[in-house]
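User: Earlier you gave me the apo prediction for this protein. Now I'd like the version with nicotinamide-adenine-dinucleotide bound, so I can compare the two side by side. Same sequence as before, with the ligand SMILES added.
Assistant: Got it. Here's the input I'm using:
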Amino acid sequence: MAKKLKIGFVGIGAIAQGCHVPGWQTVPDAEIVAAADISKQALAKGGELAGIPKDRLYTDYRKMLKEVELDILDVCTPNCVHKTPTIAGFKAGCHVIVEKPMTVSVADARRMIEAGHDARKLLMVGQCMRFMEDGIAMKRWVDEGLVGDIYWGRASYLRPRGVPAWGAFADKELSAGGPCYDLGVHILDLCLWLMGHPEPVAVSANIWLEIANKPSLMKHNPKKFTVPDELAAGFIRFKNGACLSLETSWAINAPVPNNGIFLAGTKGGIKNNPATLVREEAGMLVDTTVQVNPDAGIQSHHEEIRQFADAVRKGKPSPVPGEEALLTQRILDGIYKSAALGREVKV
Ligand SMILES: NC(=O)c1ccc[n+]([C@@H]2O[C@H](COP(=O)([O-])OP(=O)(O)OC[C@H]3O[C@@H](n4cnc5c(N)ncnc54)[C@H](O)[C@@H]3O)[C@@H](O)[C@H]2O)c1
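And here is the structure of the complex with nicotinamide-adenine-dinucleotide:
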């Protein structure tokens, strides 16, 4: 049997403990051998879950990378701490999987991609919605040619009351932005993937911070809420003429929304929640939903990890390469820039 893939973590907090550690544990030819975290509590709990020997738990990831030979580094730190460990991982000879958002600026994203190329290692961004059964169903329709050319879409992920009180989400120093980086990045990536990654050219957007810091409304500690936005809305233009409308919030006085994406193509339209294809049949506009889904029950984070392990083992391309996440990052940078300038910006 081939040697097992040796996995190490940087950041072994909520998403690592809840999804990545169990994900790696479903890969038969992989073993988690080390972890680094600045929190001793996270290290103790995450280390135990992952079955890592105590002498392989580090408070400094650089020391871990020096002392332990790893095949794959799994980066599950807060958004602003994605770039440096990713680059260090490549320099230490690892393939790297990094949680979403890939990072918090186009410049950082380019450096991460370059470091992967220099090291000839794979970079995967954890855009887990691509591995959900709805996402896979919509992609099947697109790939079968049932949707045609997608020219307009709407992506909505509005939480009326959902400022995260956990982790570093509401802390600007660690997360950079609000719901755009938390929720918006998921639906944006899903849309771009289904649209075939068209080249974005311009963004017109605004962000708001109006109600999230009212303790009567939110469960979080308002002193810790330092990100610039609780709501973002934008309109994105692509070089091929397609456009996408995006809206995402952690706090908004709105009725409970029907979240999801909808994409309109020349042959049909698709939406998620549940996956539906809308197209003309026998002179009528008809909804098709999935009766029996071969991917039903798929666990998206586990699948994301299994596919990355498979790509590393077989020398296949990254299932979510940095170059695709860079398009998303260009749009995210565009949203904040457009909001600051009060006009449409080129991206
Ligand atoms: N894909 C998803 O559905 C999903 C869901 C939740 C979070 N995330 C992403 O995962 C990332 C982590 O989020 P989380 O909820 O696990 O946060 P968390 O705060 O629970 O965990 C992050 C961990 O990183 C550690 N850390 C911070 N700086 C570090 C450093 N310099 N070196 C080593 N460790 C460090 C923290 O101590 C903490 O234990 C974020 O980027 C977030 O956007 C993705």
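For your comparison, keep in mind: Residues 200 and 238 are 4 Å apart (CA to CA).
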